[in-house]
Input
Amino acid sequence: AATLSMLVTVNSKEGKRLYLRQIDTEGIESGIQLMTGANAALALNKALKNGMDTLFSDNKFLSALLATDK
Output
């Protein structure tokens, strides 16, 4: 298993914080007997995908990104 922890912030051009969220996800590559570099990469990729899916499914995040362009 691999874990991903990221703190995401979106600030306006004036420096006002529009969005702040801590995201913690896990990626598991099932059926692995030995954690090699290649196997670890598979689990890490799943953790990253889970984190990105969580972030980009958050409408508040998307709204904050759009607000930075105003």
